[in-house]
Structure formats: C-alpha cells, structure tokens
C-alpha cells in the first residue's frame, strides 16, 4: 500500500475527505468566474445552469433603493419560488444582463466569500425595450470543490445617465 492510499483509507474511516478531494481556497478569479457563469447562463435562458449555482436553501431578496439612500424590501423567495418566478418572467420577456463586479471579499478561512455587482438589464417585451439597473450581493461558500451561492439580495437602483 502506498502512503497516499493509507492516508485516504484512514481518512475515510474517520469521516474525513480523501487528500485529493480537499477543496482549494476560494480565489478572486474563481468568484469573478462564478459571476460570469451566472450571467452567461441567465442570458442564454438556461435556468438549470443558473440555479444550479445556488445552495438548496438559498434565499433571494428583492428590494429598492430610496432617494434618501435607504432600502425598501418588497419580497423574498426560496430556490423553488425564484426558479418558478424566473420561468414565468422569461416566458414573456427577453432579458440580457451585463454585470460588473464591484467588490470581492474572501473569508479568512478561504471557504467563503461575498461578491457585490452592479448590473444593467435590457428587458424587451411586447415590442418595448427598457433598461433596469440593480446592485446585487451574494454570499458564496465552497460545497466540496464547487462554489455555491447562499442566495442573492438584489437592490433596484436608478440607472446612471447615458453618456
């Protein structure tokens, strides 16, 4: 028996992950790639891929920024509700998102991170097109080797003036 095999067998006996299955710490690049993957899945209307990046107990919060800078919460959903709402929305509306990561903070243990984005969404429905803007915040955790979002808080904001 090799030392690695012995180590993996011992780890299995006491309930630890095998040596090669230990996840690497989260990196800034991994967080940015996660967000880019979410955007790509949403824009191609692939809700299986989009919602596959969320934990089973994810919570989605919708709110709006007030002119005074506060927020007004107007809804929250669990994963199943958010998926159903997205299916209904995308059945009637063409939606294209463009996100920009504004902040990444990685936890000291390297197993969690928060990511803030600013996004602009072009919405087309019944021959009309408009743009909506939002700031989002997600908390990410390693789930084995994969990043998963524990949910998303989306705050509707005024879009910046067009130049």
Tell me what the structure shows:
This protein has helices at 3-13, 28-43, 47-52, 79-92, and strands at residues 54-65, 71-78, 94-106, 112-125, 128-143, 146-157. With 163 residues, the chain is α+β, with helices and mostly antiparallel strands. It has four helices and six strands. A hairpin with a 2-residue loop joins strand 5 and strand 6. Residues 1-21 have low confidence and may be disordered. The radius of gyration is 19 Å and the shape is globular. It starts with a helix and ends in a 6-residue tail after the last strand. The protein has a single domain, classed as Nuclear Transport Factor 2, Chain: A (Roll). Helices cover 29% and strands 46% of the residues. The longest helix is centred in the first third of the chain and has 16 residues, at 28-43. The protein has a six-stranded mixed beta sheet with strand order 2-1-6-5-4-3.
CATH fold label = Nuclear Transport Factor 2, Chain: A
User: Structural class of the secondary elements?
Assistant: alpha+beta
The mean pLDDT is 88
Order of helical and strand elements: HHHEEHEEEE
Radius of gyration: 19 Å
Shape: globular
Please mark out the parts with pLDDT under 50 across 5 or more consecutive residues, or reply none: 1-21
User: Total domains, how many?
Assistant: 1
Separation of termini?
A: 68 Å
Biggest sheet record: 6 strands, mixed
Beta-strand content estimate = over 45%
Largest sheet, spatial ordering of strands: 2-1-6-5-4-3
Based on DSSP secondary structure assignment, what is the total number of beta strands? 6
Number of helices: 4
CATH architecture: Roll
Quickly name the level 1 CATH class: Alpha Beta
Task: Name the helicity range.
Answer: 25-40%
């Amino acid at each position: 028996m090799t030392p690695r095999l012995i180590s993996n067998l011992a780890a299995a006996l006491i309930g630890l992950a095998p040596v090669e299955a230990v996840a690497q710490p989260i990196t800034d690049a991994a967080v940015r790639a996660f967000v880019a993957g979410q955007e790509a899945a949403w824009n191609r209307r692939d809700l299986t891929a989009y919602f596959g990046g969320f934990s089973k107990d994810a919570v989605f919060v919708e709110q709006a920024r007030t002119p005074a800078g506060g927020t007004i919460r107007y809804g929250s959903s669990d994963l199943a509700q958010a998926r159903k709402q997205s299916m209904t929305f995308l059945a009637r509306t063409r939606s294209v998102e463009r996100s920009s990561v504004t902040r990444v903070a990685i936890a000291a243990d390297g197993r969690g991170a928060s990511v803030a984005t600013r996004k602009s969404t072009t919405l087309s429905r019944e021959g009309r097109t408009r743009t909506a803007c939002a700031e989002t915040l997600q908390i990410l955790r390693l789930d084995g080797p994969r990043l998963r979002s524990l949910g998303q808080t989306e705050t509707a904001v005024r879009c910046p003036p067009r130049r």
